[in-house]
Amino acid sequence: MTEETVTVAPKPDLPPPSAATGPVAWLKENLFSSPLNIALTIISLLLLYLIVPPLLNWIIVGATWVFPTEVIIGDRSPRYADCGPDGACWLFVRTRIEQFIFGFYPETERWRVILSFILGAVGIYGLLGGPERFRRQAAIGFFVVFPILSFWLLRGGLGLLPVPTSQWGGFMLTLVIALVGIVLSLPFGILLALGRRSNLPIVHLLCVIFIEFVRGVPLITVIFMANIMLPLFLPPGYDVNVLLRVLVGTTAFVSAYMAEVVRGGLQAIPKGQFEGAMALGLGYWQMMRLIILPQALRVSIPSIVNTFIGFFKDTTLVSMVGLYDFLNMVKAGSKDANWIGADLTGYTFCAIVYWVCCFSMSRYSMHLERKLHTGHKR
Amino acid sequence: MSAVQSKTASQFEVGTDVMVELSGVNKWYGQFHVLKDINLTVYRGERIVVCGPSGSGKSTMIRCINRLEEHQRGKIVVDGVELSHDLKNIDRVRREVGMVFQHFNLFPHLTVLENLTLAPIWVRKMPKKEAEEVATHYLERVKIPEQAHKYPGQLSGGQQQRVAIARSLCMNPKVMLFDEPTSALDPEMIKEVLEVMVELARSGMTMLCVTHEMGFARTVANRVIFMDFGEIIEQNTPEEFFNNPKSDRTKLFLSQILHH
Predict the structure, then answer these.
(1) Report field, pTM of the whole predicted structure over 0.80
(2) Which end of chain B has fewer CB atoms surrounding its CB within 10 Å, N or C?
(3) Cβ–Cβ of A272/B153 closer than 8 Å?
(4) Which stretches of chain B drop beneath a pLDDT of 50?
């Protein structure tokens, strides 16, 4: 390039005006800047004062954490009456925690569940947080090796004691249903979304019918239908177990939602991206895989994770067909004659566990959004 | 545009073999007849500038050449391959025809180098290493080798458009289509893009450019085509076209774009 070599010196940059500093200035500016602001501040503080201390007192300070002596030395089993009246009865959770996690899984075989948890955690770490160069291995590990291995571990057979799915329960069952739904819904959802945008009328119609039908009925209905109708489609005498039926139903349900989320993302991609890819001679699938979907999924991350979070909590509906997921397990535990009255503690515990899971997903999605940001404006 | 006027149009070589041929091409958008009986023959090495008022069908015409738009009647043959509903032919044509867009259409999630190597690797099945060498070569040719590892969003408009040109060149195309390549650029960036295009014309590339850069047309075009209302109204050498326009519509158009 033939650039002129006239140098024009710009004025030196000045530092930005420093804001008023110090905690008092901050308070003045943010909390007491106007009469309305002062009123809001006071009301908020009042509400916090009314809610937070009693809540903390109930959960932590006033709660019963330690078993009485006669229980520790083994004279009798713990019961709700061991807990103080003014707080949470964590003795209930401490006594039942293994059942909350493993359901009715045989005690001697629980190491298999723990091993599956660890494998899954390693897989998720490798896939989402681990070093970039092992991403491909991690993907194969998580999407191929882990499901096969954990299916074998959980289900048994081939040298391991078989554990029928009717004995699965608790948090482990919740995780199984959630993971299957989350992992399968993304590819199915993408295919359904592409199908819905397809120019082929039959493909388009089938996808629209599936999405609108499944999305138009409550999840509980889908679960019931899967439970009752799936056996009708199969040859007589061929029994599908309840868990599998439920997995088919929930996965179909979350896939339909995912399809619409992905379709929204696809619509956010400018036409020029398609044209740029086509003009280079890329075929449809290459264009989708290399150009369109990476961008569409990136813009849909908040909605995708939103769907996952919603679904994670919706897994509790499987209790309606008699499965003992985490929530149902806790509920069943509090029906025990020894623990009548402990249900409030049980539900609080559930709320905390679900919240931790969902909040982690939410934080991870934020992290992912920041990481994938490449400086382009939209 | 004095910097680019180092060579006159007549100094460029034009072959005798036909690169692109449009005969009796018609296209409608719904009821709107956007292309009316277009006949155009482009020879190897020709640099054709297409101009005309907005809505005259010039973009649509060049977008038909790589089938980003479908024509409904007539025949388009690119390097001996006829464009029809045959997907194989469409792919063959798109591999040989490069296109540069008004809004660059770079892939924002890929680095500049990845933008350039993508099509050679996936369409031409070129080994990654070789594709990167080709990409580096063309980045040097458009004078931004140092930007290879940045994302498009971190570049200026002029740099992005040069990357887009390099991206097309990496596929070693036989024809390059330019759809208003400088219309979305800030004035000070137009020059750097035009310089690259002049460079490209000098190398013997067959080019069809929809542009309003009349300085560019005078410098490199061997033919200027004026379109209005979906028709080719007039085509001539740049000298004749600018100094001695035949039709009234051309005169009106030229008076509007040259004296504002």
Answers:
(1) yes
(2) C
(3) no
(4) 1-7, 9-10
